[in-house]
Each structure stands twice: as C-alpha cells, then as structure tokens.
Write a structure and sequence with these properties.
about 525 residues, alpha+beta, Udp-n-acetylmuramoylalanyl-d-glutamate--2,6- Diaminopimelate Ligase, Chain: A, domain 1, Beta-Lactamase, 5 domains, 5-stranded mixed β-sheet, 5-stranded antiparallel β-sheet, about 45% helix, about 15% strand, flat
Length: about 525
C-alpha cells in the first residue's frame, strides 16, 4: 500500500527544508512575522522572488515567495485583489510570503495582512535594509547546515548499526539502534507475519487520517480502515504488502503508509524467506529512509540468508570458482545465465564507499554479489533486472553477458563509469547495438587493430588515455576527470600517441580508424 500523492498536491523541490522559525531567528535579516499562523513546523524549501500578479505558474511548492508589491494596483485594497493573490499562492503550495518595505511600499497593505490571516499563509515583513538576495542566501545557508547535519546523522547511524550487527545479540541490537535513530519503533516480522522482535515505542498518534493510501480497495474502505486500525495493526498489515507472494507475482521491496500522524514503512529483507522490517516514526525524512535501508540490509544478512537455498548455492559457486571451476559451470548456482556488471562511485566529493553503503547499493540493485574496492563498488546483477540511477552514486553498466564474457562486461562497466564521471551523468550504459565495425570479420579487425596500435600497445596508459579522449570527443577536461589525472597529463599523452603513431589526431578519418581499432583491442 505505498502512498501516492494527490494529483492536485504540489510537489516541493528536493531540497532539505528550513524551519521558518530559524529564518525568523536570524538577527541580520530582522524579518518579522505579522500575519498568518506561527506554526513551529512550518518549513521553507526554496526562496523565490516574483512580482507577478498571479505567481501560481512559477511556484513548485514550499517556497518563501518574496515580493516588493510592484504588481499591486492602486485600488487593490477595495476589491478582491489580495484575496485572489494569496489564494493562488496557497493553491500552489507556497509556504510563506515575504513583503519588502522598499522601494514601492512604506508599510505592508492592511488588506494583504487580512488575506494572509484568512488563508493561513505566514506573512513576513522584510525591512528596507534587508535585500531579497540576502534572504535567499540565508535560506541556502540554512539548507547547507541542514544537509551537513543530516549527512552526519546518517553516517553516525550507519556506524552504530554496523557495530550493533557485530554484537552477540545482533538482531535485537540492530533493532534498538534503528528505533533510537528514528525516534520510534522497529519490528522484525517472521514469514508468517509473527512479530519476532521489536525495540522502541510507537510515536503518539494524532487524529486518524481520512484516507490512508491510493492502493486500497476504494475510498470507503480506506476511510474505514483508517478509523479502525491502530498504527501497530497498520504496520503489521503493511508488512504483508512487501512479503513474497509466490505465484501471485512479485511484491514491492518497500511500502509506506501514515496512520494517526504516525509514519509507517515496511522493507522486505533480502533473505527471500519472508522476513520483513517494520518501522514506525514521527516523521518521514530522507535520512530516516536511508538509515532504515541500511538496517534492512544488515538484518537481511542476520536472518540467515547463508542458510537458505540461494545463499548456500552462492557459497558453493564461490568455493568452486576458488578451486578452479570455469565460470560457466557455476553460473546456474548463482541464479542465472545472463548478468550485468555495475561499477559505481559516490557522486561528487562523497566519502569512499564502505561495506555498509556498498551492501545497501547492491540490495537496491537487486543483488547480494558485491565487491568493494578502494574507490569503486562492483555489483553483479541478474540479467532480468534493469539497473537504474541511484541517489548519491555515479554508475556505469555493462551489456548483459554470459559467464564466458564476464571479464569483458567488467571492462565495459569500468569504461561506462569513466564516461559517466566525465559527463557528470548519474548512469551510463554500455552500448551494444550493431555497428559498421560488425561488418568486418573479427579476426581481420583484431589483426588490423594490433598492427595499427603496435607503437603504443606497450604502454597501457597511452592506449587508455587515447580511448577515453576519443570517446569524449577530444575533451581535455572531461578526459582528465575520467582518468583522475591533470589535463596537462592528458595533453602530453595524446601528443606522445600522435608522435608514436605518426598520425594527425585532428583528422576525423584518423580518429575514426583509431576508435574502431581501440574497440577491437
């Protein structure tokens, strides 16, 4: 029963919210709340300046709208202008209105104050010495502080959950840590829906909501359930939504719901045995979801996957590979004949991947076959799954390959990741469509490639730099990013390639021939 937003509900920007109270507390801004509710939980997602009489088309929702009142006609106070203006802001999901006292108006119009009180929109008075850009900058600063605090909170939670998983009583310890981190209750349900272990307390319930989920049998049924189910009962029911259904088809890996103001979430554990993690919390923040996802990965390992049929088969396959068996002979034990290799690195300047974050990524991609390197995570994903972009990661995906081509697929994923990093693209797939090169017999193409590239073949750094540079259309900067070297190093290597090959690399025909050769090298 995953929740779906109402079609008419505005979608707020994907940014960390800023409490309106924190903005009002900034002494350097000297903002003053003069109308509307003083709710402590009012938050701002954005700051936007507009002098349009109808700002609705330009708002995403959650904004602090800033205006100096340039759009206000002289006779506005005697009609419905301000009611219409404020109602449109509210309809668009605007969080608050900031009205500047300069240079058009000396005071905030009384009719605007009355309209904001009537429609429940917080109205801030912006003094003449405070610029709108200064208000927007303050919002960004508070957002950055919130993001840093959230990242620190998630990191500390990951470390504490990993430490809890190493205790002699790992399952209760992980549940206790999770409940503490989200400020609510964590429950482990068994395959039959039995509550096996729990920790923490349910948050206090408010009035029951009229409609709980878009995936219920119908509106009447939803309202009835909302009135009759407690948060604890609803959480147990939600766990059944993600539990494996057998012949009935695949179940979602997670689901959310809200009952009485308590936010509920259920996560199917990767053991495949029907274990489910349930979480009840007073809020539903992105950080809470990340923390719960890490806990679900750890609990997947702790609920006995290594004792299940799939876990035992995987262990047997790895042992046979170590003892010299060919990949094609162990592929059936791993669960499929066709696989996709994914290479991933944290986006931006994120920390180096660790075992917990790598396991969480692999679980999201639908695989438990993961390898963590110094700066790259490699995941072997069943070919029937379609890897998608993951928040916080940059990924390169190979073409589907059988066991005989796993090594080649690994190379494809590495090159796709390099290209994704250079172009700042969240995910790039290796292209496997037929090309002109396919018209040349493979043996002839390979012989030609070896002869053409012989002068540089003995220096892998040169061939890889040439391949990357050509793939990025001769961009020095993007090639430097992809190879993690200085742009001057790229220039020097390309000049060396040109000299050794005796070729003009500015000639498109030369570039094309070299590219075909490098593809077959």
């Amino acid at each position: 029963m995953p929740e779906s937003p109402s079609p008419s509900a505005p979608a707020v920007p994907p940014t960390p919210p800023v409490p309106l109270s924190a903005l009002l507390a900034r002494e350097d801004l000297a903002l003053r709340l003069i109308a509307g509710p003083a709710e402590p939980d009012t938050v701002i997602h954005w700051a936007h300046t507009s002098e349009m009489a109808d700002p609705y088309p330009y708002l995403l929702g959650g904004e602090l709208l800033l205006s100096a009142g340039v759009h206000i006609p002289e006779a506005a106070g005697s009609g419905t202008y301000f009611d219409d203006y404020v109602s449109r802001i509210v309809a668009a999901g605007g969080a608050a209105l900031g009205f500047g006292l300069a240079p058009v108006h000396d005071t905030v119009p009384r009719a605007l104050v009355a309209a904001c009180d009537a429609f429940g929109l917080p109205l801030l008075e912006v003094p003449p010495q405070t610029t709108f850009s200064g208000v927007a900058r303050a919002v960004w600063q508070l957002m950055a502080q919130a993001r840093l605090a959230e990242l620190r909170r998630v990191t500390e939670a990951q470390q504490s959950l990993a430490a809890a998983a190493a205790r002699p009583d790992p399952v209760p310890a992980v549940l206790r840590q999770l409940a503490q981190r989200v400020g609510g209750r964590a429950v482990l349900y068994g395959p039959e829906g039995t509550e096996l272990a729990h920790a923490g307390r349910l948050p206090p319930s408010g009035p029951q909501e009229a409609a709980r989920s878009a995936n219920r049998a119908g509106p009447a049924d939803a309202a009835h359930r909302a009135d009759t189910l407690s948060p604890a009962e609803a959480l147990a029911e939600l766990a059944g939504v993600v539990r494996p259904r057998g012949a009935q088809g695949p179940a979602p890996s997670s689901a959310t719901d809200t009952v009485g103001g308590v936010h509920l979430a259920a996560y199917a554990l990767g053991s495949g045995q029907g274990f489910v993690l349930g979480v009840a919390a007073p809020s539903r923040d992105p950080g809470d979801h990340t923390i719960a996802s890490v806990a679900s990965v750890l609990l997947s390992l702790l609920t006995g996957e290594h004792q299940s049929g799939s876990g035992a088969a995987r262990s047997a396959a790895l042992v046979r590979l170590l003892l010299g068996a060919a990949p094609r002979t162990v592929a059936p034990l791993l669960g499929g004949e066709r696989w996709v290799v994914v290479h991933a690195r944290p986006a931006g300047d994120g920390p180096a991947p660790d075992a917990v974050s790598a396991s969480a990524l692999a679980a999201t991609l639908g695989s438990a076959l993961v390898d963590v390197g110094d700066d790259v995570v490699r995941v072997l994903v069943p070919g029937d799954r379609e890897p998608t972009a993951q928040p916080g990661w940059i990924c390169g995906v190979s073409a589907p390959a059988g066991p005989h081509a796993w090594a080649a697929a690994d190379t494809q994923a590495a090159r796709a990741l390099a290209r994704a990093r250079a172009t700042r693209t969240p995910l790039i797939r290796h292209g496997d469509r037929p090309a002109l090169a396919d018209l040349v017999p493979p043996a002839d193409a390979e012989a030609h490639a070896q002869a053409l590239l012989a002068p540089v073949a003995g220096t892998p750094a040169l061939t890889e730099t040439l391949r990357t540079w050509l793939s990025l259309h001769g961009s020095w900067d993007r090639t430097a990013v992809a190879l993690s070297v200085h742009r001057n190093t790229v220039r020097q290597r390309i000049a060396r390639c040109s000299a050794l090959l005796g070729a003009d690399l500015d000639d498109p025909d030369v570039r094309m021939e070299l590219w075909f050769a490098l593809r077959d090298d």
